[in-house]
Specification:
about 400 residues; mainly alpha; Glycosyltransferase; two-stranded antiparallel ribbon; 13 helices; about 5% strand
Length: about 400
């Protein structure tokens, strides 16, 4: 397959000191220490409903106002609302995956296992045994789900982290697989939570990729593996059919979920590829069309856009988000690794977002609390762990080269 790249980027291979294996590992170590120095706890864009004021927000609109006020306030109002730093299983699960890529090093091996071990202890018990949830209530445009309710995003990141570090035995893997099918599979696609049947494309593909992976786990009984494989195929076909003619996917299928943004599109591409590979399917024009759209409409040159075709990011007028930036680096690394873009594209993306991501300096603050800027930049789940994930993935690709 010929490598493809948007016409607004040159063909010249572009490498910098930022992307040598040594520098990528140094930056990954920097980010890890920021997280570890604070016990992997910090602010989260969606932690507003952990405030005692939640008891007054009895209606969906009030919950959304409280959550969005905390999220968007130019001043950190969390201390005034008694919102404490959170350690989330989702961040630790993704951190375990990130660290496991460098597990040839005893230092990183120990880090990966420690995070994987803690993440495994956060599996839910009782009705939803085997799954994972967030540590906070969430109110979205399409629904409300409390902290005790599992969701597919937390479950996928946590399960992958535990599987990548060997922290799930056969019994735990089968419990996870059965719960995934019983509570998060609608018979056609994977839902975000057991309480919602709304099709959210990135969530559906997270479920498909996890189901396909669990089906191949050693020791999982044949009948359960067959059900997992069938569910993964069905979910995959639903999102493939939902691709728009221009190569994009809306966030979801409801009337108010038709927007296209960068990091959710990135999740769709990464999980579509992962599910396809687990199921033994060949790479196809659906992925190629998706990556073309992603680069043409969700980048201004090498600078990630939050929304498709947003105003130029380089002029500083478009919305910037650390999760979107880190995911853009991660997707660029994946696209380069698999030949969807020419070599050097990932280098350009990392260089473009370097100044707004932690780790460009040599001095290491004791923990993320010492970082300047808005609270979202210090968020383990939303900012720092996605960056750690991107940097270790980049390290693997550069070391292989």
């Amino acid at each position: 397959m010929a490598a493809w790249q948007s016409s607004n980027l040159t063909d010249t291979e572009f490498t910098t000191g930022l992307t040598t294996p040594e520098e990528l590992e140094r930056r990954a170590d920097y980010v890890f220490q920021l997280l570890d120095g604070c016990g992997w706890a910090g602010p989260d864009p969606y932690d507003g409903l952990t405030s005692p004021l939640k008891s007054l927000a009895v209606r969906p609109l009030l919950r959304q106002v409280l959550l969005q006020t905390v999220k968007r306030s130019p001043v950190d109002i969390r201390p005034w609302l008694a919102i404490r730093p959170l350690r989330t299983a989702t961040a630790c699960g993704l951190g375990a995956t990130a660290c496991s890529r460098l597990a040839a090093s005893p230092l990183w091996h120990g880090r990966a296992r420690q995070l994987g071990r803690w993440t495994a202890t956060r599996q839910l018990r009782g009705r939803y045994a085997g799954l994972w949830s967030y540590e906070f209530d969430v109110q979205t445009r399409w629904g409300h789900y409390p902290a005790w309710m599992p969701n597919i995003v937390a479950t996928t990141f946590c399960a992958d982290g535990c599987l990548d570090t060997g922290m799930l035995d056969v019994a735990a893997a089968e419990s996870l697989a059965a719960a995934l099918l019983d509570h998060l599979y609608t018979g056609r696609h994977f839902s975000y939570t057991p309480a919602s049947g709304t099709l959210i494309h990135n969530a559906n593909l997270m479920g498909a990729a996890l189901a396909a992976r669990l089906a191949r786990q050693e020791g999982v009984c044949r009948s359960l593996a067959s059900r997992l494989t069938d569910a993964a195929h069905s979910a995959l076909s639903v999102t493939v059919a939902g691709q728009r003619p221009d190569g994009s996917w809306p966030y979801g299928t409801a009337a108010n979920l038709g927007w296209v943004d960068g990091f959710h599109t990135g999740y769709v591409l990464l999980r579509l590829d992962a599910a396809s590979r687990e199921l033994g399917l060949e790479s196809n024009e659906v992925i190629e069309s998706g990556i073309r759209y992603y680069i043409d409409h969700l980048f201004d040159g090498p600078v990630p856009r939050y929304y498709a075709n947003a105003r130029t990011a380089r002029a500083g007028r478009a919305r910037r988000d650390p999760n979107n930036d880190a995911t853009a680096v991660r997707v660029a690394v994946w696209a380069e690794e698999h030949g969807y873009v020419r070599r050097g594209f990932a280098d350009r993306v990392l260089a473009a977002v370097n100044q707004v991501l932690p780790g460009q300096g040599r001095m290491q603050p004791p923990c993320a609390d010492a970082l300047p800027g808005p609270p979202v930049l210090r968020s383990p789940r939303w900012s720092l762990t996605p960056l750690l994930d991107a940097l270790t993935a980049f390290h693997v690709v550069r070391s292989a080269r």
